[in-house]
Structures are given as structure tokens and as C-alpha cells.
Specification:
With 280 residues, this protein is of the alpha/beta class. The protein has two domains: 139 residues, Glycerate kinase, domain 2, CATH 3.90.1510; 109 residues, Rossmann fold (3-Layer(aba) Sandwich), CATH 3.40.50. The strands form three sheets. The chain has a three-stranded parallel sheet with strand order 1-4-5. Strands 6-7-8 form a three-stranded parallel sheet, covered by helices on one side. Helix 2 packs parallel to helix 6 and helix 7 crosses helix 8. The radius of gyration is 25 Å and the shape is elongated.
Length: 280
């Protein structure tokens, strides 16, 4: 059974990891009777015990498909890397609370899973999968394997991945970065289209251009509501540019060939591998 681990609001609001553990048989004991907010509740965790009656995962191979390689805690953990964009103010305090929860779970685990790659995915759901006895796998790898792209030639002229927001987190094992690395190893240009781009040298090295689909300052509500139309316009403009560049290249190549033929120097005519380019 595969579980998608994406969306770092999880441990800070929805508490999917907490609920997943309770469903499987990890009983979390609190001083309070109800869990209203995970961060307010974590300091009250006194102990975590196993419920032997939970057997629903027996015989099931559990795999968590992660969207980032971040661990649960530490400088690159889920609180420090993703907390600010989810509205957290005190990232160090949040990291200490999550670390405390991980320590409470140590007696129930065969090792410390808080530092493994992907444990911080989905706000800690990756960690919960490991606590439940599952394994973690990069989700992008899983998808590329399913599409048979990971171990075969990519027969494309140009690759255009997309992302909601592109910044340093893009490089932490997310799909666009993995696709770009795979394509560039085969000499295929990769251009990123994104809802918003926080430009950095690292992104520029990985992608052959990073473009936001926003053409003017807009509100978040407007951007979300019109995402489809904005993406279509940006992709069309990019494809038009690529097609025009290909046309110029072909015309210049034909001019060079004609010049060599006119001069009677047929042996020096460069081989032509110019084909109709398809944007994929």
C-alpha cells in the first residue's frame, strides 16, 4: 500500500501523522481530553503506548511516497524548512516540540527515524509511516518508474515541468528537480514554469530558464482562480519562442549548406540532423 506524503501543513494543523499512528495502534496520552491544535498539544504528551488490538496493517507492505528528502527535525527538518510558509513564528520551539514527540516514540521503534530522508515530508507523515513499519521512497522516482522514464532514453526535444512555487525547496528532491536532472544527463533542455519563482543560482544551474506564469502583480486568490488560463498563456508564449528559435536555426543551417554547395565544396557540407521539433 502506497501513501502519498505531500503537504507540510500536516503536523501543524491536520495532524495526519498523529491520526495515522492512533489508527494503527499508537495511543497518544495527553493531559487534555481533546486535540485542538497540534503545537499546543505536543508539550502535554506524557507517554505513547502500543495498542495490540490494532491489526489492520498485518501483512501489508506500507510505502510512503515523499515529495522532499527533509528529515523530521534539525536545521533541515520540517519545522525549520517549511514552518514559516505555513505561518509558524517560532521555528526553534516547533522543532523542539516535534523532537520531543519523536523521543517519546523511540521505545516503540527499532531505530531513530527522525533523521532519515523523507521523514519530514508532509509535516512529519513520512516519519509516521516509518513508525508504523513502512518504508519511504521519493514520490518522483515512483512516478518516473511507473512511466518507465527513469531507466530509458527520454525521446523529447524539450522538457517543461511545472510547479506551484519554485524556490530552494524545489531542490530537496521534488519532482521538477528530479526530472531536470534526468533530462540534462541526456542533453535535453529543461525549462520550468511555476506559479511563483524565487530565483536563485541553484535553480538557474539546474533549469534552462525559470518562468512564473504571472504576467502582473496579482492577489493569491486571483492567481489560484485563474491558474489554468495563466498556465496556458505562459506555455503558449514559451512554445512560440521555442518554435521561432528552431525556425531560425533551420534557416541558418540551410543557408550554410547552400553556401558550401555553391562553392563546390560538397565534402565540407555539414551533416543535417535538423528535424521538426516537437514541444513536449
Amino acid at each position: 500500500m502506497s501513501v502519498g506524503c505531500q503537504g507540510s501543513h500536516t503536523i501543524f494543523s491536520d495532524s495526519e501523522g498523529n491520526r495515522a499512528e492512533r489508527a494503527y495502534g499508537r495511543q497518544v496520552h495527553h493531559h487534555a481530553h481533546h486535540v485542538k491544535d497540534v503545537l499546543e498539544t505536543l508539550p502535554n504528551v506524557r507517554a505513547i503506548a502500543r495498542r495490540d488490538e490494532a491489526k489492520w496493517l498485518a501483512g501489508i507492505r506500507l510505502i510512503g511516497l515523499t515529495d522532499v528528502a527533509s528529515p523530521l527535525t534539525g536545521a533541515n527538518g520540517t519545522s525549520q524548512i517549511f514552518g514559516a510558509q505555513k505561518g509558524l513564528k517560532d521555528l526553534d520551539a516547533a522543532d523542539r516540540l516535534v523532537s520531543n514527540l519523536a523521543k517519546q516514540l523511540l521505545p516503540l521503534m527499532s531505530g531513530d527515524y527522525s533523521s532519515v530522508e523523507g521523514a519530514g515530508a508532509a509535516g512529519g507523515l513520512g516519519f509516521a509511516v516509518r513508525v508504523l513499519g513502512g518504508l519511504l521512497q521519493p514520490g518522483a522516482d515512483f512516478i518516473l518508474d511507473a512511466l518507465q522514464l527513469n531507466h530509458s532514453a527520454m525521446n523529447f526535444d524539450w522538457v517543461i515541468p511545472g510547479e506551484g512555487r519554485s524556490d530552494g525547496q524545489t531542490l530537496l528532491g521534488k519532482g521538477p528537480a528530479l526530472i531536470a536532472s534526468l533530462a540534462k544527463r541526456q542533453g535535453i533542455p529543461v525549462t520550468l514554469l511555476s506559479g511563483a519563482v524565487d530565483h536563485s543560482a541553484a535553480l538557474s544551474r539546474l533549469f534552462d530558464g525559470c518562468f512564473s506564469i504571472q504576467s502582473a502583480p496579482v492577489t493569491l486568490e486571483h492567481a489560484v482562480r485563474n491558474a489554468g488560463a495563466l498556465l496556458e498563456v505562459a506555455a503558449c508564449n514559451l512554445a512560440t519562442l521555442f518554435a521561432k528559435a528552431s525556425q531560425i536555426r533551420c534557416e541558418r543551417g540551410e543557408d550554410r549548406m547552400a553556401k558550401h554547395v555553391d562553392e563546390g565544396d560538397c565534402d565540407r557540407v555539414p551533416p543535417s540532423n535538423l528535424t521538426d521539433h516537437t514541444v513536449v
